[in-house]
Amino acid sequence: MTTDPTPSRSLITLSADEWQAFLAGLYERGDRLDRRVPGESYARDEAVDAYALSAHAEALQSAEVDGDLWGTLEDIDETAKSEEEAWNKIRAFYLDRGCVLVRVTGTEEPEDWLLAEALARRLGLLG
């Protein structure tokens, strides 16, 4: 059994369908990621998928997008003996710095994204 030490205020849980709807509600213009405004039109190349979002994430664990777990661990000057230990250290590092963990449920493999709080707020994930 694995325990999750993530504080509930730092955890947002979305179903796989909610995740897809969330991504569909975003656009990227230049280097800025933001929420679509109903009634506005957006260029096709401004659409956001998981790959586009990954450029804005602090760290991630995803079956769809390679989050470079070991490179991220090295970036934060940590070591680990397993992928689970590595992710736990990465998650703790970013949560300690005010990031938000977005967990997607209903997927075959773990889907966790760490976003800066300001980004999560701008994207409508935080009230």
Structural commentary:
- A four-stranded mixed sheet has the order 1-5-6-4. A two-stranded antiparallel ribbon has the order 2-3.
- It starts with 10 loop residues before the first strand and ends in a 5-residue tail after the last helix.
- The mean pLDDT is 92.
- It contains five helices and six strands.
- By secondary structure, the protein is of the alpha+beta class.
- β5 (100-105) and β6 form a beta hairpin.
- This is DUF4259 domain-containing protein.
Short description:
The protein is 31% helix and 21% strand. The protein contains five helices and six strands, in the order βαββαβααββα.
List the helices and strands and how they pair.
Blueprint: E1 11-15, H1 16-24, E2 26-29, E3 32-35, H2 50-54, E4 59-61, H3 69-75, H4 83-95, E5 100-105, E6 111-115, H5 117-122
Parallel strand pairs: 1-5
Antiparallel strand pairs: 2-3, 4-6, 5-6
Distance between the termini: 32 Å
Mean of pLDDT: 92
| Whole-angstrom Rg | 15 Å
Indicate the overall shape.
Answer: globular
Assess the beta-strand content as a share of residues. 15-25%
Helix/strand order: EHEEHEHHEEH
Major beta sheet summary: 4 strands, mixed
Total beta strand runs: 6
Helical amount among residues, as a percent range?
25-40%
Q: Unreliable runs, pLDDT <50, ≥5 residues?
A: none
Structural class: alpha+beta
| Discrete helix count | 5
Strand numbers in spatial order across the main sheet? 1-5-6-4
Protein name: DUF4259 domain-containing protein
Organism: Deinococcus petrolearius
